[in-house]
Protein backbone atom coordinates (compact mmCIF):
# COMPACT_ATOMS: atom_id res chain seq x y z
CA UNK A 1 0.00 0.00 0.00
CA UNK A 2 2.75 2.42 1.01
CA UNK A 3 6.51 2.26 0.54
CA UNK A 4 8.99 4.90 1.68
CA UNK A 5 12.72 4.92 1.06
CA UNK A 6 15.03 7.26 2.96
CA UNK A 7 12.18 9.75 3.22
CA UNK A 8 13.38 13.00 4.78
CA UNK A 9 11.59 16.28 5.43
CA UNK A 10 13.51 19.23 6.79
CA UNK A 11 11.87 22.43 7.89
CA UNK A 12 14.16 25.40 8.53
CA UNK A 13 14.56 24.54 12.18
CA UNK A 14 13.52 20.89 12.53
CA UNK A 15 13.96 17.63 10.71
CA UNK A 16 10.41 16.25 10.82
CA UNK A 17 11.25 13.02 8.96
CA UNK A 18 14.71 11.55 9.04
CA UNK A 19 15.52 8.88 6.41
CA UNK A 20 12.32 6.96 7.03
CA UNK A 21 12.23 3.62 5.24
CA UNK A 22 9.17 1.44 5.71
CA UNK A 23 6.56 -0.64 3.99
CA UNK A 24 2.84 -0.82 4.78
CA UNK A 25 0.78 -3.81 3.64
CA UNK A 26 -3.02 -4.05 3.17
CA UNK A 27 -5.07 -4.13 6.40
CA UNK A 28 -5.23 -1.75 9.34
CA UNK A 29 -1.89 -0.23 10.28
CA UNK A 30 -1.36 1.93 13.35
CA UNK A 31 1.26 4.66 13.09
CA UNK A 32 2.32 5.59 16.61
CA UNK A 33 4.52 8.45 17.66
CA UNK A 34 4.66 11.09 20.35
CA UNK A 35 3.49 14.58 19.45
CA UNK A 36 5.94 16.04 16.96
CA UNK A 37 7.23 12.62 15.86
CA UNK A 38 6.42 13.45 12.24
CA UNK A 39 3.12 11.63 11.67
CA UNK A 40 1.21 14.51 10.07
CA UNK A 41 4.20 15.46 7.96
CA UNK A 42 4.41 11.89 6.65
CA UNK A 43 0.71 11.87 5.75
CA UNK A 44 1.00 15.17 3.86
CA UNK A 45 3.93 13.84 1.86
CA UNK A 46 2.10 10.58 1.10
CA UNK A 47 -0.84 12.55 -0.27
CA UNK A 48 1.47 14.58 -2.48
CA UNK A 49 0.50 17.75 -0.61
CA UNK A 50 4.02 18.54 0.61
CA UNK A 51 7.32 17.72 -1.11
CA UNK A 52 9.94 15.59 0.62
CA UNK A 53 13.40 17.11 1.01
CA UNK A 54 15.06 13.81 0.16
CA UNK A 55 14.12 10.20 -0.47
CA UNK A 56 11.11 8.69 -2.20
CA UNK A 57 7.67 7.31 -1.42
CA UNK A 58 4.96 5.51 -3.33
CA UNK A 59 1.30 5.06 -2.40
CA UNK A 60 -0.63 2.32 -4.23
CA UNK A 61 2.37 2.11 -6.54
CA UNK A 62 2.14 5.83 -7.45
CA UNK A 63 5.06 8.19 -6.89
CA UNK A 64 4.12 10.89 -4.36
CA UNK A 65 6.38 13.43 -6.07
CA UNK A 66 4.57 13.32 -9.42
CA UNK A 67 1.23 11.52 -8.99
CA UNK A 68 -0.40 13.50 -6.15
CA UNK A 69 -3.77 14.00 -7.88
CA UNK A 70 -4.09 10.29 -8.82
CA UNK A 71 -3.13 9.28 -5.27
CA UNK A 72 -5.77 11.59 -3.80
CA UNK A 73 -8.39 10.09 -6.14
CA UNK A 74 -7.75 6.62 -4.69
CA UNK A 75 -6.98 7.57 -1.09
CA UNK A 76 -9.23 9.11 1.57
CA UNK A 77 -7.81 11.54 4.11
CA UNK A 78 -9.12 12.50 7.53
CA UNK A 79 -7.14 15.49 8.79
CA UNK A 80 -6.29 15.93 12.44
CA UNK A 81 -7.61 19.40 13.08
CA UNK A 82 -11.11 20.76 12.94
CA UNK A 83 -11.62 21.96 9.39
CA UNK A 84 -15.36 21.64 8.81
CA UNK A 85 -17.58 24.48 7.63
CA UNK A 86 -19.96 25.22 10.53
CA UNK A 87 -22.89 26.52 8.50
CA UNK A 88 -23.66 23.56 6.25
CA UNK A 89 -25.11 20.16 7.10
CA UNK A 90 -23.16 16.91 7.09
CA UNK A 91 -25.10 15.83 4.01
CA UNK A 92 -24.30 19.01 2.07
CA UNK A 93 -20.63 18.85 3.03
CA UNK A 94 -20.10 15.17 2.27
CA UNK A 95 -22.02 15.42 -1.05
CA UNK A 96 -19.76 18.35 -1.94
CA UNK A 97 -16.64 16.30 -1.12
CA UNK A 98 -17.97 13.37 -3.16
CA UNK A 99 -18.58 15.68 -6.13
CA UNK A 100 -15.04 17.06 -5.72
CA UNK A 101 -13.80 13.48 -5.99
CA UNK A 102 -15.53 13.13 -9.32
CA UNK A 103 -18.78 11.34 -8.43
CA UNK A 104 -21.88 12.22 -10.49
CA UNK A 105 -24.64 14.08 -8.56
CA UNK A 106 -26.89 11.04 -7.99
CA UNK A 107 -24.03 8.75 -7.05
CA UNK A 108 -22.66 11.44 -4.72
CA UNK A 109 -26.00 11.69 -2.88
CA UNK A 110 -26.42 7.93 -2.61
CA UNK A 111 -22.87 7.34 -1.41
CA UNK A 112 -23.22 10.20 1.09
CA UNK A 113 -26.35 8.67 2.62
CA UNK A 114 -24.68 5.24 2.85
CA UNK A 115 -21.46 6.61 4.33
CA UNK A 116 -23.18 8.82 6.89
CA UNK A 117 -25.29 5.87 7.96
CA UNK A 118 -22.14 3.77 8.28
CA UNK A 119 -20.51 6.30 10.60
CA UNK A 120 -23.70 6.56 12.67
CA UNK A 121 -24.77 10.05 11.62
CA UNK A 122 -28.05 9.34 9.94
CA UNK A 123 -30.55 11.16 12.13
CA UNK A 124 -28.56 14.38 12.43
CA UNK A 125 -27.38 14.59 8.85
CA UNK A 126 -29.47 17.64 7.90
CA UNK A 127 -28.41 19.75 10.87
CA UNK A 128 -25.64 22.37 10.57
CA UNK A 129 -22.22 20.97 11.50
CA UNK A 130 -21.54 23.98 13.77
CA UNK A 131 -23.93 22.49 16.34
CA UNK A 132 -22.27 19.05 16.36
CA UNK A 133 -20.31 17.54 19.24
CA UNK A 134 -16.62 16.70 18.74
CA UNK A 135 -17.52 13.04 18.21
CA UNK A 136 -20.04 13.91 15.51
CA UNK A 137 -17.53 16.18 13.77
CA UNK A 138 -14.97 13.38 13.78
CA UNK A 139 -17.58 11.15 12.14
CA UNK A 140 -18.23 13.70 9.41
CA UNK A 141 -14.50 13.87 8.78
CA UNK A 142 -14.37 10.08 8.55
CA UNK A 143 -17.40 10.01 6.22
CA UNK A 144 -15.86 12.48 3.76
CA UNK A 145 -12.68 10.36 3.70
CA UNK A 146 -14.71 7.28 2.74
CA UNK A 147 -17.36 8.68 0.42
CA UNK A 148 -15.50 8.18 -2.87
CA UNK A 149 -14.82 4.52 -2.05
CA UNK A 150 -11.04 4.78 -1.77
CA UNK A 151 -8.69 1.77 -1.60
CA UNK A 152 -6.81 3.29 1.32
CA UNK A 153 -7.64 5.89 3.99
CA UNK A 154 -5.16 7.92 6.01
CA UNK A 155 -6.66 8.89 9.36
CA UNK A 156 -4.72 11.48 11.35
CA UNK A 157 -5.46 11.19 15.10
CA UNK A 158 -9.17 10.29 14.63
CA UNK A 159 -9.72 9.83 18.38
CA UNK A 160 -8.38 13.26 19.28
CA UNK A 161 -10.61 15.13 21.71
CA UNK A 162 -13.01 12.20 22.24
CA UNK A 163 -14.07 10.85 25.61
CA UNK A 164 -13.46 7.12 26.34
CA UNK A 165 -16.83 6.03 24.93
CA UNK A 166 -16.42 8.16 21.80
CA UNK A 167 -12.90 6.79 21.42
CA UNK A 168 -14.09 3.18 21.54
CA UNK A 169 -16.86 3.90 19.04
CA UNK A 170 -14.43 5.56 16.65
CA UNK A 171 -11.96 2.67 16.96
CA UNK A 172 -14.80 0.21 16.26
CA UNK A 173 -15.80 2.21 13.17
CA UNK A 174 -12.23 2.22 11.90
CA UNK A 175 -11.98 -1.53 12.30
CA UNK A 176 -15.21 -1.93 10.32
CA UNK A 177 -13.94 0.29 7.50
CA UNK A 178 -11.56 -2.54 6.76
CA UNK A 179 -13.75 -5.48 7.78
CA UNK A 180 -16.90 -4.34 5.93
CA UNK A 181 -15.49 -2.52 2.92
CA UNK A 182 -12.01 -3.99 2.50
CA UNK A 183 -10.49 -0.50 2.59
CA UNK A 184 -6.97 -0.45 4.00
CA UNK A 185 -6.34 2.00 6.82
CA UNK A 186 -3.34 3.90 8.11
CA UNK A 187 -4.36 5.44 11.44
CA UNK A 188 -2.13 7.63 13.61
CA UNK A 189 -2.19 8.12 17.35
CA UNK A 190 0.15 9.07 20.15
CA UNK A 191 -1.49 6.33 22.25
CA UNK A 192 -0.08 2.91 21.61
CA UNK A 193 -2.81 1.17 23.61
CA UNK A 194 -5.68 2.20 21.37
CA UNK A 195 -3.86 1.25 18.20
CA UNK A 196 -2.98 -2.15 19.62
CA UNK A 197 -6.69 -2.92 19.76
CA UNK A 198 -7.48 -1.68 16.26
CA UNK A 199 -4.50 -2.51 14.09
CA UNK A 200 -3.09 -5.62 12.46
CA UNK A 201 0.29 -4.00 12.26
CA UNK A 202 2.03 -1.26 14.24
CA UNK A 203 4.66 1.15 13.04
CA UNK A 204 6.37 3.34 15.63
CA UNK A 205 8.21 6.49 14.64
CA UNK A 206 10.22 8.77 16.87
CA UNK A 207 12.03 11.92 15.86
CA UNK A 208 11.01 11.20 12.25
CA UNK A 209 12.79 7.83 12.14
CA UNK A 210 11.44 4.31 12.17
CA UNK A 211 11.73 2.79 15.61
CA UNK A 212 9.82 -0.38 15.02
CA UNK A 213 7.47 -2.08 12.57
CA UNK A 214 5.83 -5.37 13.46
CA UNK A 215 2.55 -7.24 13.67
CA UNK A 216 0.40 -6.15 16.60
CA UNK A 217 0.67 -9.59 18.12
CA UNK A 218 4.47 -9.53 18.23
CA UNK A 219 4.36 -5.95 19.37
CA UNK A 220 2.00 -6.56 22.28
CA UNK A 221 4.08 -9.44 23.50
CA UNK A 222 7.27 -7.44 23.25
CA UNK A 223 5.80 -4.43 24.97
CA UNK A 224 3.95 -6.14 27.79
CA UNK A 225 5.04 -7.53 31.09
CA UNK A 226 3.33 -9.61 33.71
CA UNK A 227 2.98 -7.99 37.12
CA UNK A 228 3.15 -10.65 39.83
CA UNK A 229 2.68 -10.20 43.56
CA UNK A 230 3.16 -13.04 46.03
CA UNK A 231 2.68 -13.50 49.77
CA UNK A 232 5.36 -14.16 52.41
CA UNK A 233 5.30 -17.48 54.25
CA UNK A 234 7.13 -18.90 57.26
CA UNK A 235 9.41 -20.75 54.92
CA UNK A 236 9.91 -17.69 52.71
CA UNK A 237 9.69 -14.58 54.96
CA UNK A 238 10.52 -12.47 51.88
CA UNK A 239 8.29 -14.12 49.29
CA UNK A 240 9.08 -11.49 46.66
CA UNK A 241 12.80 -12.14 46.82
CA UNK A 242 12.27 -15.93 46.80
CA UNK A 243 10.01 -15.64 43.75
CA UNK A 244 12.55 -13.40 41.98
CA UNK A 245 15.17 -16.12 42.40
CA UNK A 246 12.75 -18.86 41.37
CA UNK A 247 11.70 -16.96 38.24
CA UNK A 248 15.34 -16.41 37.28
CA UNK A 249 15.99 -20.13 37.71
CA UNK A 250 12.99 -20.84 35.48
CA UNK A 251 14.64 -18.70 32.79
CA UNK A 252 12.34 -15.67 33.11
CA UNK A 253 13.57 -12.08 32.90
CA UNK A 254 12.20 -10.32 35.96
CA UNK A 255 12.60 -7.01 37.72
CA UNK A 256 11.41 -6.16 41.20
CA UNK A 257 9.47 -2.93 41.73
CA UNK A 258 8.68 -2.84 45.45
CA UNK A 259 6.47 -5.85 46.11
CA UNK A 260 5.69 -6.25 42.42
CA UNK A 261 7.66 -8.54 40.17
CA UNK A 262 7.61 -7.52 36.51
CA UNK A 263 8.17 -10.48 34.24
CA UNK A 264 8.85 -10.00 30.52
CA UNK A 265 6.21 -11.88 28.55
CA UNK A 266 8.11 -13.92 26.01
CA UNK A 267 5.28 -16.09 24.80
CA UNK A 268 2.11 -17.80 26.00
CA UNK A 269 4.16 -20.22 28.15
CA UNK A 270 5.32 -17.38 30.41
CA UNK A 271 2.02 -17.50 32.31
CA UNK A 272 2.35 -21.22 33.04
CA UNK A 273 6.00 -20.90 34.01
CA UNK A 274 5.13 -18.18 36.55
CA UNK A 275 2.22 -20.19 37.95
CA UNK A 276 4.34 -23.34 38.30
CA UNK A 277 7.24 -21.49 39.95
CA UNK A 278 4.89 -19.88 42.48
CA UNK A 279 3.19 -23.20 43.25
CA UNK A 280 6.55 -24.89 43.66
CA UNK A 281 7.65 -22.24 46.18
CA UNK A 282 4.46 -22.66 48.14
CA UNK A 283 3.82 -18.91 48.44
CA UNK A 284 0.41 -17.40 47.71
CA UNK A 285 -0.29 -15.64 44.42
CA UNK A 286 -1.91 -12.27 45.16
CA UNK A 287 -2.02 -11.00 41.59
CA UNK A 288 -0.84 -11.83 38.12
CA UNK A 289 -1.85 -9.29 35.51
CA UNK A 290 -0.64 -8.03 32.19
CA UNK A 291 0.76 -4.51 32.17
CA UNK A 292 1.38 -2.57 29.02
CA UNK A 293 4.47 -0.45 28.76
CA UNK A 294 3.99 3.21 28.11
CA UNK A 295 4.92 4.37 24.67
CA UNK A 296 7.82 6.39 26.06
CA UNK A 297 9.22 3.17 27.47
CA UNK A 298 8.92 1.49 24.10
CA UNK A 299 10.90 4.37 22.70
CA UNK A 300 13.81 4.21 25.07
CA UNK A 301 13.47 0.48 25.71
CA UNK A 302 13.51 0.78 29.48
CA UNK A 303 10.39 -1.03 30.65
CA UNK A 304 8.98 -0.10 34.01
CA UNK A 305 5.69 -1.92 33.67
CA UNK A 306 3.30 0.89 34.46
CA UNK A 307 0.11 0.87 32.49
CA UNK A 308 -0.21 3.66 29.97
CA UNK A 309 -3.58 4.96 31.09
N1 LIG B 1 5.01 23.66 8.32
C1 LIG B 1 5.95 23.47 9.24
N2 LIG B 1 6.99 24.30 9.39
C2 LIG B 1 7.95 24.09 10.31
N3 LIG B 1 7.97 23.04 11.16
C3 LIG B 1 6.97 22.16 11.06
C4 LIG B 1 5.89 22.31 10.13
N4 LIG B 1 5.03 21.27 10.27
C5 LIG B 1 5.53 20.51 11.25
N5 LIG B 1 6.68 21.03 11.74
C6 LIG B 1 7.52 20.44 12.81
O1 LIG B 1 7.88 19.14 12.39
C7 LIG B 1 7.85 18.23 13.49
C8 LIG B 1 6.90 17.09 13.19
O2 LIG B 1 5.57 17.60 13.14
P1 LIG B 1 4.29 16.72 12.79
O3 LIG B 1 3.09 17.61 12.83
O4 LIG B 1 4.53 15.96 11.56
O5 LIG B 1 4.25 15.71 14.02
P2 LIG B 1 3.09 14.77 14.53
O6 LIG B 1 3.75 13.48 14.87
O7 LIG B 1 1.98 14.75 13.55
O8 LIG B 1 2.64 15.47 15.86
P3 LIG B 1 1.22 16.04 16.25
O9 LIG B 1 0.40 14.87 16.60
O10 LIG B 1 1.54 16.93 17.41
O11 LIG B 1 0.71 16.80 15.04
C9 LIG B 1 7.46 19.06 14.71
O12 LIG B 1 8.64 19.43 15.38
C10 LIG B 1 6.77 20.26 14.10
O13 LIG B 1 6.92 21.38 14.94
Overall geometry comes to elongated
- The biggest beta sheet, please? 6 strands, mixed
CATH fold description of the largest domain: Rossmann fold
Adjacency order of strands in the biggest sheet: 6-7-8-3-9-10
Which ligands accompany this protein?
A: adenosine-5'-triphosphate
Number of strands: 14
What is the domain total for the residues?
2
Family: Belongs to the ABC transporter superfamily.
Domain ABC transporter: 2-232
Keywords: ATP-binding, Nucleotide-binding, Transport
Protein name: ABC transporter ATP-binding protein
Brief overview, please?
This protein is of the alpha/beta class and 309 residues long. The protein has 11 helices and 14 strands.
Word description of this protein:
By secondary structure, this protein is an alpha/beta fold. It folds into 2 domains: 2-220, P-loop containing nucleotide triphosphate hydrolases (Rossmann fold, 3-Layer(aba) Sandwich), CATH 3.40.50.300; 225-292, Alpha-Beta Plaits (2-Layer Sandwich). Helices cover 37% and strands 27% of the residues. It contains 11 helices and 14 strands. It has helices spanning 39-46, 68-74, 90-100, 105-118, 134-146, 164-181, 192-198, 216-222, 239-249, 269-281, 295-300, and strands at residues 2-10, 15-24, 28-32, 54-59, 62-63, 75-78, 152-155, 184-189, 201-206, 209-215, 224-230, 254-257, 260-264, 285-292. It has a 6-stranded mixed sheet, sandwiched between helices. A 4-stranded antiparallel sheet has the order 2-1-4-5. β12 and β13 form a beta hairpin. The longest helix has 18 residues, at 164-181. The protein is elongated, with a radius of gyration of 23 Å. Adenosine-5'-triphosphate binds next to α1.
